[in-house]
Amino acid sequence: MTDKENKEYLNAIADEFDNRGLTIGDFLKATSTRNLSFLQPAEHAFKNFAQIFDQLIAGEYSKKTKGKLLEELISTLFKDGYPSVFEVRRNCKTSSNEIDLQLNWTPAAERVNFLPAGDKWGETFLCECKNYADKAGVTYVGKFYSLMCYTKTTLGIFISWNGVTGESSSWKDSVGLIKKLALGDNKYIIVLTKDDLAKIRNRKTNIFNLIREKYLALKNDIDYMKFIEKNGKHEIGLDKRW
After folding, report:
1. What is the b/e burial string over 198-237, where b = at least 16 CB atoms within 10 angstroms of the residue's CB?
2. pTM to 2 decimal places
3. I need a labelling partner for 20 at 20 to 30 A (CA). Which of 44, 84, 102, 202 fits?
């Protein structure tokens, strides 16, 4: 199809959305299990993302260089991959800390109500990048939580190349702390690992599906715990989180 034909087709779809009172967010929610092509990053950004990812997989770098490459990888994914959706600020400084990436919705994304009602992304969210040889422990998760509190954000993307400590079913270590913070403080920390990023690299999924799936999994865990607590069978104290 020509550019003119594509434009006419897309305008027809936009009219149908408008007639039915639908939003882009409604569409994303209904198709969340599909890896749709238009949710893939822009092609030039995907090539850069793939190149940096392959560098991280194959290369031997210093701790500092690995950290910078991971930040560049994630910035490329959000900023260059979806320029009409995200505004990205890197290395934002607070009075005592530095935020790796702060992401805001673009005015265009806000106008079309990009996310369905009820999602916890908020007007802005944070990304923290950790490329360590080991899994990230509770100290790093706790510091990221403190940044989220300072910036009054609800959602945080914690990108740890080798994951975080703890078993998926556990309420201990970093995994447990993340659940407790969601349960007690409504702070949702989504962990992405090199395996998750590999799925994007191999076009098996996209960043929107990844985050939504992990958010729903976290929410299901804490909803179950709320049910248990309501029936008086278990109690978890946030004051013991780390």
Report:
1. ebbbeeebbbbbbbbebbeebeebbeebeeeeeeeeeebe
2. 0.81
3. 84
